[in-house]
Design brief:
This is ABC3 transporter permease protein domain-containing protein. Pfam families: FtsX, MacB_PCD. With 452 residues, the chain is an alpha+beta fold. Helix content is 54%, strand content 19%. The protein folds into two domains: 207 residues, no CATH class; 215 residues, no CATH class. It is built from 15 helices and 14 strands. The strands form two sheets. Strands 4-5-10-7-9-8 form a six-stranded mixed beta barrel. Strands 2-3-12-11 form a four-stranded mixed sheet, with no helix packed on it. A hairpin with a 2-residue loop joins strand 4 and strand 5.
Length: 452
């Protein structure tokens, strides 16, 4: 049996090599079909892994409460005007919310409050528009920040309301291109802050959900929360096109940490109920639970893989149709050969086996080549990224956002897809090869011998 199989494969290869170009072109449909299945699943896995990593960075045991600016026409907006200045839009989380959540919910083990604004930061003649983040010492561990130089904020800085700052790597590079920032004084909103540390460069986080924007940590300036409240205050006035607008926000974000994962969802429900009573129906905050987002991301990953795999499988079906077309033409060309074989005693099963073997060899070889190409997906994707970053998008608007999103993607080969894609290619060959093989086997031997 083994030797018969080897002989059938050798005969199939000999027949296919008689028409190298035709066999090669037919095989291309299977090659690119298998490659597209592996490549699309790899890209889907990479995108899903990136999204899940962003969610995990927020912490599976964390609950994040963020301030949300109400719509301009919302009746729940709270505006105040003194008659001598711009009206003030007051919204968002309150320090009372922070105290309420940290003191009344027993499952919460730690809390971190954040207030942030955009501000120009200056050192001598150098300036940069940075994100000023007022927070406490726990912010460093929560966002996995590492120090390149100096130290981060301490509890003593918070107690003393010290004018100290920790700056991101890009802020340091722009303001202090030729010297160490530690110990130097920067100017921000007419206040002087002494730089005590510089954070290492780290990848920006993508936007998560509808209420959280992406964060560029390298352009951050960190100061103690109480320092911000006493020096800068809650009210921020912005000048735009000759007019002034003012907003009053006490806290932009409160991050709550729960001891056990199983308590996260239950605690989040308690947080929502507590804030609902405090804010009296105003939709100026949102509660984000990374654990729920992680579960959603895993479900989306499964759906994504099914959709991408199905789309790619269509190209395999097209390749199978090409195989059927070529095999039908081959049967017509080899009608006399079939008649001679039947006259010499070959059975119908022998004819079916002969043509099915040729089809399987054709689709199997294409499948192996497709798997080889699929394994090169990460390298091919890196080449596309290089083209996007250095050629296609050079000088266009929105370059940084697109190149950052595209540049952070890393395809991950789903190794379970390799045998599946190869098996499907062989199966496609068998399915689409049965009809031509049966057509060849059912030929009348005498009519076949008369064929010219």
């Amino acid at each position: 049996m083994f030797f018969n199989t080897i002989r059938a494969v050798r005969l199939a290869l000999k027949s296919l090599l008689l028409h190298k170009l035709r066999s090669g072109l037919t095989m291309l449909g299977i090659v690119f079909g298998v490659f597209s299945v592996i490549a699309m699943l790899a890209i889907g896995e990479g995108a899903s892994a990136q999204a899940q990593a962003q969610v995990r960075q927020l912490g599976a045991t964390n609950i994040i409460v963020v301030s949300v600016k109400p719509p301009a026409d919302s009746s729940s907006n709270s505006s105040r005007s003194s008659g001598r200045g711009p009206s003030v839009l007051a919204y968002g989380l309150l320090r009372a919310d922070y105290r309420l959540l940290s003191e009344t919910i027993p499952t919460i083990t730690s809390t971190i409050a954040i207030r942030e604004i955009q501000s120009e930061v200056r050192y001598l003649q150098n300036t940069i528009n940075a994100r000023v983040v007022a927070t406490t010492t726990g912010y460093k561990d929560m966002n996995h920040l590492e120090m390149a130089e100096g130290r981060f904020l301490t509890d003593q800085d918070e107690r003393e309301m010290a004018n100290v700052a920790v700056i991101g790597s890009e802020v340091a590079a722009r303001l202090f291109p030729y010297e160490s920032p530690v110990g130097k004084t920067i100017l921000m909103r007419s206040f002087r802050f002494t730089v005590v540390g510089v954070t290492r460069s780290r990848t920006a986080s993508a936007a998560i959900g509808g209420s959280m924007s992406g964060q560029e940590f390298n352009k951050d300036v960190y100061i103690p929360l109480k320092t911000f409240q006493t020096r800068i205050g809650d009210r921020v006035i912005t000048a735009l096109s000759g007019s002034f607008s003012a907003e009053e926000v006490q806290l932009n974000q409160i991050t709550l940490q729960v001891a056990e994962t199983q308590d996260v969802v239950r605690t989040a429900d308690v947080v929502r109920e507590s804030l609902m009573r405090n804010h009296r129906g105003k939709n100026d905050y949102d509660v984000i639970v990374p654990l729920e987002l992680l579960k959603q991301a895993e479900q989306i990953k499964q759906i994504f893989n099914i959709v991408l795999g199905s789309i790619a499988a269509i190209s395999l079906v097209v390749g199978g149709i090409g195989i059927m077309n070529i095999m039908l033409a081959t049967v017509t060309e080899r009608t006399r050969e079939i008649g001679i074989r039947r006259a010499l005693g070959a059975r119908q099963s022998d004819i079916i086996s002969q043509f099915l073997t040729e089809t399987i060899v054709l689709s199997g070889t294409g499948g192996l080549l497709g798997v080889g190409l699929g394994l090169c997906t990460p390298l091919a994707f890196m080449g596309i990224q290089w083209i996007v970053e250095n050629a296609v998008l050079s000088g266009s608007s929105g370059t940084s956002e697109i190149s950052q999103l595209f540049g952070n993607m890393r395809p991950q080969i789903a190794f379970w897809s390799l045998p599946i894609a190869f098996g499907i290619s062989v199966g496609i060959g068998v399915i689409f090869g049965i009809y031509p093989a049966r057509s060849a086997a059912r030929m009348d031997p005498i009519e076949a011998l008369r064929h010219e």
